[in-house]
Structure formats: C-alpha cells, structure tokens
Amino acid sequence: MTSAPILLLAFIFPILAWFGVFQLEDNSAIWFQRSGSVTVLFAVWVEFKLFKLAGLTNPISENGKTYDDMRKSDYLQTHNSKKIQIIKYLAAVLAISGTVIWGYGDLIFTALS
User: Which of 101, 81, 109, 110 is nearest to 37 (CA)?
Assistant: First the structure.
C-alpha cells in the first residue's frame, strides 16, 4: 500500500513540530499549530487514494466491467479489505486530530509545555 508512508508522515509531522524540528519562527506553539494543517493535508491525500482504490475493489457492472475485472476485484477485496479498513480508520483519526491541532495547537502546546 502506498498510503502507509503518507500516513506515517501525517503522524510524524506534528511530533517533529512539537520538538521544533524545521522551525521557521521563534514561536513553537504557532509552529505546532501549523503542523495540523499538514497533517490534515496528508490525511485527505490518503482518503483520495482510497477513493481511487474503491473503484477497483467495488466495480459496478453497469460501467462495462468484464468478468476478469470482477475476479480481480474479488481478489483485491479478500486480500486487502482488512488493510483498507485500518488505513481508512487511521486517516480519519489523523484528519480529526490534525484539525484539532490546526485549530487549537497553540493552546495545547502552551498548556502542555
């Protein structure tokens, strides 16, 4: 799955921002807050990739899919459905946490520092 590295970046970016890695200004709280937007960006990117994958795992026969396409779909579903569900869950959690960090990251940073 190519979504795993993107999810890893979405998870690691706020942690790096918390510790001031690649900090562009003196205010660490604002830098942490801005990292939330990058986390949301990565989470949305993963969701977009999952939408494209859904077309492969759930083909609609009215679109002219052949029997071979349906067989490939069944194979993809049986071998990857658990992974896809985990990635969907992680992307949703990262989108929500990124939104919270984006909106309240400066307050969270100040309260916990």
Answer: 101
